Amino acid sequence: MTGKNTPKEVLNVVKKKTGKSVSEKDIYKLASGVKPSTMQSEAQLRKLIKQVAGLVNIPVSEQTTKELIQAIKSSKMDPNNMEQLMKNIMKK
C-alpha cells in the first residue's frame, strides 16, 4: 500500500466495525496469503472469509459468505490492487 498511514487506518476501521483490536502483524500475515487467483476461487474466498472472521472472532453465516463471494467475484476491481480493495472496504 502506498499510504504510510493506510495500515493504521485499516486497523482503526476493523476496530470500529467489529469492536475488536487486530494487530498489524495479523493483518499482514493474512494478506500475505491473498493472491489474485484467490479472488476468483470460491473455495479460496471461503477460506479467506473464515480466516478474517476468526481473526476478529465474529461468526459469518453461510448466507453472508455467499453474498461476499458473489460481490467479490462480480466486482470489476483489479485483484492485484490491494490498496483499492482496502479503500473500498474502509468506505463501508
Q: Can you walk through the features of this model?
A:
- The protein is mainly alpha-helical.
- It has one domain (6-91).
- The chain has five helices and no strands.
- It has helices spanning 6-18, 24-32, 42-56, 62-74, 82-91.
- Helix 3 packs across helix 4 (62-74).
- The chain is globular and about 30 Å long.
- 2% of the residues are buried.
Essential attributes:
mainly alpha; globular; 5 helices; 92 residues
Helix content: 55-70%
Total number of distinct structural domains: 1
Rounded to an integer in angstroms, the radius of gyration calculated over CA atoms is 13 Å
Note the overall shape.
globular
InterPro entries: SpoVIF
Protein name: Stage VI sporulation protein F
Summarize the structure.
The protein is built from five helices and no strands. With 92 residues, the protein is mainly α.
List the helices and strands and how they pair.
Elements: H1 6-18, H2 24-32, H3 42-56, H4 62-74, H5 82-91
Helix pairs in contact: 3-4
